[in-house]
Amino acid sequence: MSDYYSEKPEFMVKIPTALRKFAVLLEPLRIVEKAIGQAWKIQQRLLWQPTRAVVLGAGPIGILCAILLRLRGLEVHVYAKSAPDSLQGRILNELGASYRSVDDHPVMGIKDELGQIDFILEGTGNSTVAFQAIAQVGTNGVICLTGVSAGNRNVEIPADVINLQMVLGNRVAFGSVNANRRYFEAGVEHFQQAEQRWPGIFDRLLTRRVPFADFKSALDRRPEDIKTLLTVAAG
Length: 235
What we know:
Blueprint: H1 26-42, E1 52-56, H2 60-71, E2 75-80, H3 87-94, E3 98-101, H4 110-114, E4 119-122, H5 127-134, E5 142-145, H6 159-168, E6 172-175, H7 181-197, H8 201-205, E7 206-211, H9 215-218, E8 227-231
Parallel strand pairs: 1-2, 1-4, 2-3, 4-5, 5-6, 7-8
Helix pairs in contact: 1-2, 1-7
């Protein structure tokens, strides 16, 4: 694609050879790197020792977030639409995270199910889920919204309850998207750490490789699709 696109060297991050086969995942990973990095930076306002985290969504963002949180040693619980025995569920269980389907475990009941939740990352793109999740974060906790919703959906929320919880519970909610070079560099480092701990984990997230000429088939989402790639043949 170099006939059509170029970049300045100062914006490029060199990928070690061993990581190149799945390095395309660095794009979603840098979003999570920034979200977690900023959450921990915000929480420096407190003597904060998080132990339990919740991730909403089991797409690339959700699973990559679970990987980073497990590298930090947190107890991680992921909630999404896929069945518990799906590929997403199996991968998350292998990471040492727990996986639950929201069909059986609604978002509004998470804190009753788990207790204190120190950190939540929302990666569903569903505004209803995002506002429900704000009410689930625990005392002194922080929630980061990364999902981008579209449309004109209106939802009813327990505004007084959320307001009371946010103020008296010393909670923080913020949004995050994109990232600068430092988060790409952190992603490369965490690629290496995660590959040592869970060999082959990133390859398993690349569930389909589709030839560029057959790009339309990549848009037909399958139940166990995590990340679908278009492959561009060498000239």
